[in-house]
Write a structure and sequence with these properties.
This is Ferric uptake regulation protein. With 143 residues, the chain is an alpha+beta fold. It folds into two domains: 80 residues, Winged helix-like DNA-binding domain superfamily/Winged helix DNA-binding domain (Arc Repressor Mutant, subunit A); 61 residues, Ferric-uptake regulator, C-terminal dimerisarion domain (Dna Ligase, domain 1). 46% of the residues lie in helices and 16% in strands. The strands form two sheets. Strands 4-3-5 form a three-stranded mixed β-sheet, with no helix packed on it. Helix 3 crosses helix 4. The mean pLDDT is 91.
């Protein structure tokens, strides 16, 4: 934890280490500030909500986490420890799935090239219904 903070140019503090440790150990990949705050407190850590906001802003600026905003009002954070990926989001239950599709990346690159651009980064979010929610919607409509 300390090496990552140091390499990112951030001062090493106990709160930053605790928060980063929490992010690396939690199973959920996309967390709101409130999720992080509640998770830390459930583990007995006494980091205030304002401190979590501040630390996550520093982590984002340092490139440790990415902030994602979907169609909800909440921002979601995820560690930048995996390759670039896109997202599928269920409109009913909020299930969020990461996926990588080389063909999509190829097509985006070709589209950019066609228009005289070079892609620096992109964000692709697709919205729909997971199979569980789709099944529930179908059974509800047949009643």
């Amino acid at each position: 934890m300390q090496t990552l903070l140091k390499d990112s140019g951030l001062k090493i503090t106990m709160q930053r280490c605790k928060l980063l440790e929490f992010l690396t150990q939690v199973n959920q990949q996309h967390l709101t500030i409130e999720n992080i705050y509640l998770g830390l407190n459930a583990q007995g850590e006494t980091i205030g909500l304002n401190s979590v906001y501040r630390i996550m802003a520093h982590f984002e600026q340092a490139g440790i986490v990415s902030r994602r905003v979907f169609e909800s009002e909440s921002a979601f954070y995820e560690l930048n420890n995996k390759p670039h990926h896109d997202h599928l989001l269920c409109l009913t239950c909020g299930k969020l799935i990461d996926f990588i599709d080389p063909l999509i990346n190829l097509r985006l690159g070709l589209a950019a090239e066609h228009h005289g651009m070079s892609i620096h980064h992109h964000s692709l979010n697709m919205y729909g219904y997971c199979f569980d929610c789709l099944q529930a919607l179908k059974s509800k409509s047949t009643r």
